[in-house]
Design a protein that fits this description.
The complex is a heterodimer of chains A (about 220) and B (about 450). With about 220 residues, chain A is an alpha/beta fold. Chain A has helices spanning about 40-50, 80-90, 95-105, 120-135, 150-160, 175-185, 200-210, 215-220, and strands at about 5-10, 15-25, 30-35, 55-60, 65-70, 140, 170-175, 185-190, 195-200. In chain A, α3 runs antiparallel to α4 (about 120-135) and α7 (about 200-210) packs parallel to α8. Classes of the chains: A alpha/beta (about 220), B mainly alpha (about 450).
């Protein structure tokens, strides 16, 4: 087990945002975190990454994890090339790694553009490149396909699928269930701060008590 | 092959890039030239007038010091800049990265929060050094005109401005770390400055701990260096305040800490800072680095006073707002405290103004006691007080007196200065800024 979380609880005043969340991430898998808006997906990731203090619970992780937030636009005045090289040097990655990920994410034409001038999808691909440049065995990716068009989503998904073979584990928050079903092997279904289902699609079907149907049907049945 | 660049160098480079992208910094560079230039040109012209530029003798030649006449007015532009412009640059360096999400990525990097803050501080210092180029140009021009500068008092004043920078940076960085937004941080930083002005206003003439605290406000601290004094307590307190700001920032920039944990660490830090500040404010060690020894007794008198080893007790029946008390404090007691090993001063007047003291209240008297012998005087004149002390301590007064320090009159015109500060500098900054921003455009 690469990561194990138990009893993660977080309250903002009277509101309970996370309520005793327990989950496990297995080595070299792609685990999907799915749930409706406001379920607490981003908050859970920030708790796991240590960016938000939990009120209760514990997280055990073999090795370190890196969390790539959604909706950020870091260093908007700087060119993409600088950001990639900065991360390459900061994390002591082999020279050329930044360019390799830039090629894989079709960022080469954007290398001299300032991050602040990029579209949402372009920014997302730059962020993914930054995340992939880190050496951590576990990556938490918050909405990695948000802002990407169909072709870009397909290409990024293909790239992410190669990572487990290279020894990396992905825990991915996705609100598009179709994308989640195409990418992930197992799922954690979060609703109102609680884990309401966990497992493969077959296991989720069993938990939902439905004989057949896709992730959408399971989602509707469990939330 | 791993990169050979070290993490501190990487962080420093990143912060420099972020500073260069800050329009506030370019605006500071643009404005500082004319501000310094105005101070310098006005100062040189006034200095020339006082030096007898009309053709007559230099009436005030003995009193003409380039420290007061040229350096202080020229460099006062930096006091203005560090108060009103620099905080925005420092705040942006923290708040902008927090708001755009870069800080969340950096918090997960191999660099620690103190290391990242140190890189930001180093970049701010580098940016501030660039802003000092007009000051160096002014000094160079003064030399070209044939002007004189006394190195110890010049370097001491530069140190004062450097400490002023450290304090301003600490306050701004702490405000940016604690406040939710850059706007709130700017209000907090300016609020600190206004608060120190209020403290100076309220403390004026009150005496006691309030006046003591007011003597360490940024303006008062800088004034010490402008007088040519190197006072250890001023250096230590200013440094501690600045570093304290960075320590608070290091607490509030850790996003994974709960509010309770941050508050507890803040309280601990503030308590430790208060103790350190109290200790740092105690030393009386000070050195008069002014060329004309304006803060000291004549050397012969100092040598005679050093023979007094017994404690000196002074009881002053003068109110805090009485100008005689201010003269006594500044010209006599402050100097005695730097020379004699043990000076104990007690202020015995009951009122603040001294206007309503009763005839039997001994108002106006100053009592000196050495080795059980007492003497009263109403004078605040240096010569009379010193003679009284020699008599009390039974120490022979010095026979020879020092020659007065020579003044440095110079009836020079500020040739070319207007071109340098009003035309060439703004154009150079504008050109560099334009080239920089153009190279970054898509």
């Amino acid at each position: 087990m690469l990561l194990s979380a138990t009893g993660i609880t977080l309250r903002y005043g009277a509101a309970t945002v996370l309520d005793g969340v327990a989950l496990e991430v297995r080595r070299s898998e792609i685990l999907g975190l799915i749930g409706p808006n406001g379920a607490g997906k981003t908050t859970l990731f920030e708790c796991l990454a240590g960016l938000i203090p939990c009120d209760a619970g514990s997280v055990a992780c073999e090795g370190e994890l890196f969390y790539l937030p959604d909706g950020i636009r870091p260093w908007p005045e700087q060119p993409v090339r600088w950001a990639l090289h900065f991360f390459e040097a900061l994390w002591r990655r082999p020279r050329g790694a930044a360019l390799e990920f830039a090629r894989g994410l079709q960022l080469v034409p954007l290398l001299d553009a300032r991050i602040g001038t990029l579209s949402k999808g372009e920014t997302k691909r730059v962020l993914l490149a930054l995340g992939l440049l880190t050496p951590h065995p576990l990556l938490l990716l918050d909405e990695p396909f948000d802002g990407l068009d169909f072709r870009q989503t397909r290409d990024v998904m293909a790239l992410l699928r190669t990572l487990p073979a290279a020894g990396r584990t992905l825990f991915v928050s996705i609100h598009q269930l179709n994308d989640a079903a195409r990418l992930c092997e197992r799922f954690v279904l979060l609703s109102r701060g609680r884990v309401v289902g966990c497992g493969t699609l077959d296991e989720l079907r069993a938990q939902a008590g439905i004989a057949e149907g896709g992730l959408e049907e399971v989602f509707l049945a469990l939330t | 092959m791993p990169s050979l660049r070290t993490t501190p160098a990487l962080l420093f480079g990143k912060e420099l890039r972020e500073l260069a992208a800050s329009r506030a910094w370019w605006l500071l560079l643009l404005l500082i030239g004319p501000l310094v230039g105005h101070g310098f040109i006005t100062a040189v012209e006034l200095y020339a007038e006082a030096s007898g530029s009309g053709g007559g003798p230099a009436a005030l030649a003995q009193g003409l010091s380039p420290l007061d006449g040229i350096l202080v007015p020229t460099l006062s532009a930096y006091d203005l800049a560090v108060t009103l412009l620099f905080p925005f640059i420092a705040i942006r360096l923290i708040a902008f990265e927090r708001s755009n999400g870069g800080w969340k990525l950096m918090l997960q990097s191999p660099a620690s929060v103190p290391a990242m803050l140190a890189a930001k501080a180093a970049a701010l210092l580098a940016a501030w050094c660039v802003a000092w180029v007009p000051a160096l140009l002014a000094i160079a021009l003064w030399h070209l005109y044939g002007g004189w500068l006394y190195a110890p008092e010049t370097l001491n004043l530069l140190l004062g401005h450097l400490l002023r920078f450290v304090l301003a940076a600490g306050v701004a960085v702490a405000a940016a770390a604690i406040a939710e937004s850059a706007a709130s941080a700017a209000i907090a930083a300016l609020g600190f400055t206004v608060g120190t002005w209020v403290l100076e206003f309220v403390a004026a003439g009150r005496g006691g701990w309030l006046e003591r605290a007011a003597s360490f406000t940024p303006t008062s601290a800088l004034r010490v260096f402008e007088l040519g004094l190197f006072r250890l307590s001023t250096v230590a307190v200013t440094l501690l305040l600045g570093l304290g700001g960075f320590a608070l920032a290091a607490i509030w920039l850790r996003e994974g800490w709960s509010l309770r944990r941050r508050a507890a660490r803040t309280a601990l830090t503030l308590a430790a800072l208060a103790i350190a500040l109290a200790a740092a404010s105690l030393p009386r060690t000070a050195f008069d680095l002014s060329e004309n020894r304006r803060n000291s007794f004549p050397a012969a008198d100092e040598a005679a006073l050093r023979r007094i080893t017994a404690p000196l007790h002074v009881t002053v029946y003068l109110a805090a707002e009485d100008p005689r008390r201010m003269d006594l404090d500044r010209n006599i007691l402050a100097r005695l405290e730097r020379i004699l090993p043990d000076v104990d001063v007690r202020y015995a007047a009951r009122s603040r103004s001294g206007l309503f003291e009763a005839p039997g209240d001994r108002y106006g008297e100053v009592w000196y006691e050495i080795g059980g012998r007492k003497l009263m005087s109403r004078s605040t004149t240096e010569r009379i007080v010193l003679d009284n002390l020699y008599q009390l301590a039974q120490v022979p007064p010095p026979s020879d007196s020092d020659a007065e320090a020579p003044g440095h009159p110079l009836a020079a015109r500020p040739s070319g200065a207007a071109w340098v500060f009003y035309v060439i500098w703004p154009l150079a900054v504008a050109l560099c800024g334009w080239l920089h921003f153009r190279s970054r455009s898509r």
